[in-house]
């Protein structure tokens, strides 16, 4: 028997939305890191 997450005392072990939300957060963090790296690389002065 399962319980609704809104019920008191219910500890739902897994909700599919959590996995999707985590994937979205990871993707956004990855894109932010790429953007930050690209911005830093564009601002560097090379001696060549």
Automatic annotation (TrEMBL):
Q: What is this protein called?
A: Uncharacterized protein
Which source organism? Aliiruegeria lutimaris
């Amino acid at each position: 028997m399962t319980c609704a997450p809104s019920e008191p005392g219910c500890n739902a072990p897994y909700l599919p939305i959590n996995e999707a939300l985590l994937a979205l957060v990871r993707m956004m963090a990855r894109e932010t890191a790429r953007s930050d790296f690209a911005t830093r690389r564009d601002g560097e002065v090379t001696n060549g």
